[in-house]
Specification:
The longest helix has 44 residues. By secondary structure, the chain is of the alpha+beta class. It has a six-stranded mixed β-barrel, surrounded by four helices. Helix 1 crosses helix 13 and helix 11 runs parallel beside helix 16. It is built from 18 helices and ten strands.
């Protein structure tokens, strides 16, 4: 809808606050603010939900494999040959044999549950999420220990912080499967030296996981020359089921294979449902602001009845009147949408800094990693979603003033001036 200079002048003039139209201007201001806040909130929430999913996915798939092969009734005997066969498959990036098991860890009178994973140091060095996030100690000490006594252990930073441990301290690992003796079952335990602390940024892993050399884990869990899992990373995690079929053919029917989608399906489905519900609820903010535009324009048309009649008697057509009042209402939505777009994007780009400033001002922890899994607020802007939010805001903003503008265009000049 192209406006003439005269139509633009009149529409802009109707947007300005005047003493006798103060209440209408207040409604227009709140409408603009509502549109801006609705657009900004939607962009921020969608970006945080996208970032939350991406961060969780990258960390889950960085610590855990895309596919994991388990023995159904017994450990994996010839795991070296199986790893070689799997690595040769098309679409497989790496395959790692490991020994894993739940344990209890104790130190300095404190105890906690944990998950021990035994992997070869060479394979652990290829695990970038762990190897590149050693915050204390060194991975080289872990490698040297694997070639020697094998009493080194890598510990998550949150677990070490909770138990007051540092690099060089001893950590006792207790197996739930004890040793049977003539006097009963005796707990099986061993003390390892902490050679490094890692922090992947996900609280569950940083507070639970421990890494041992493969040979040390085999000795502790009594699995000599055996493994109980093989972790596999593929080139395209979204097409993991296609590679899973090839892996099943390579390892045989005596093994159970789980992919990351099966292991975490309920978790990511819950995130998707929450994301959709949040989008629906927050969209109502824009809808309410659009209704404010509608009510404000209806009041404006009622107040400007005499002006409309004068414009019509001076030669203005019904189409011109319709365009004037449509532009007056649509401008509110357009300005609000642009303001909300800028506000939302700038906030997403600086969301972590905003959180730190608010925490310093209030003295409270606004993002507790124990509750929210991640140590920082993630925000990933999906420009397609931003375009969808902007389109929705403009749609309602342009739809709202159509009825008042149509009523203004249909106004009879004679009836409007009868009692003037």
């Amino acid at each position: 809808m192209i406006l003439s200079p005269f139509e633009r002048m009149v529409a802009i003039r109707y947007l300005r606050a005047r003493r006798q139209e103060g209440f209408i201007s207040v409604i227009a201001g709140f409408s603009l603010l509502g549109i801006a806040l609705g657009v900004a909130t939607l962009i921020i929430v969608m970006a945080v939900m996208n970032g939350f999913r991406e961060e969780l996915l990258s960390r889950i798939l960085g610590v855990n494999g895309h596919l994991t092969v388990y023995g159904v009734s017994r450990p994996i005997e010839d795991y070296g040959d199986m790893v070689s066969r799997v690595r040769a498959l098309d679409g497989v990036v790496s395959a790692t044999a490991q020994v894993e098991g739940q344990v209890m860890v104790t130190a300095r009178g404190k105890a906690s549950g944990g998950m021990v994973r035994g992997v070869s140091p060479e394979d652990l060095r290829q695990r970038a999420l762990i190897a590149d996030n050693i915050v204390a100690g060194s991975l080289d000490d872990f490698l040297e220990s694997a070639n020697g006594a094998g009493d080194a252990i890598l510990v998550g930073s949150r677990l070490a912080q909770r138990m007051g441990l540092r690099v060089g301290d001893g950590l006792t690992v207790v197996s739930p499967q004890g040793t049977t003796t003539v006097v009963g079952t005796v707990p099986r335990l061993k003390t390892y030296k902490i050679v490094g602390l890692f922090e992947v940024g996900m609280y569950e892993y940083d507070s639970t996981f421990l890494y041992l050399p493969l040979s040390a884990a085999q000795l502790f869990f009594r699995l000599p020359e055996r493994a109980n899992a093989i972790e596999i990373f593929v080139a395209d995690p979204d097409n993991v089921r296609e590679v899973k079929a090839r892996v099943a053919g390579a390892v045989g029917p005596d093994f159970r294979i789980l992919d990351w989608q099966q292991s975490n399906s309920s978790f990511f489905n819950a995130i998707q449902v929450e994301r959709n519900v949040m989008f629906l609820i927050l969209s109502l903010i824009i809808l309410v602001a659009a209704f404010n535009i509608l009510s404000g324009q209806i009041m404006l048309v009622k107040d400007k009845g005499r002006d409309i009649a004068i414009l019509r008697t001076m030669g203005a057509t019904r189409a011109m009147v319709l365009r004037i009042f449509f532009a007056s209402g649509a401008s509110i939505g357009l300005l609000g949408t642009v303001l909300g777009l800028i506000l939302g994007i700038v906030f997403c780009w600086n969301i972590e800094g905003v959180r730190q400033v608010l925490e310093s001002l209030t003295g409270t922890d606004l993002w507790n990693a124990e509750i929210r899994f991640l140590s920082r607020i993630p925000a990933v802007i999906d420009w397609a979603e931003v375009a969808q939010v902007v389109f929705m805001a403009l749609f309602w903003s342009f739809l709202a003033p159509l009825l008042p503008a149509w009523r203004a265009a249909r106004l009879d000049p004679v009836e409007a001036l009868r009692y003037e």
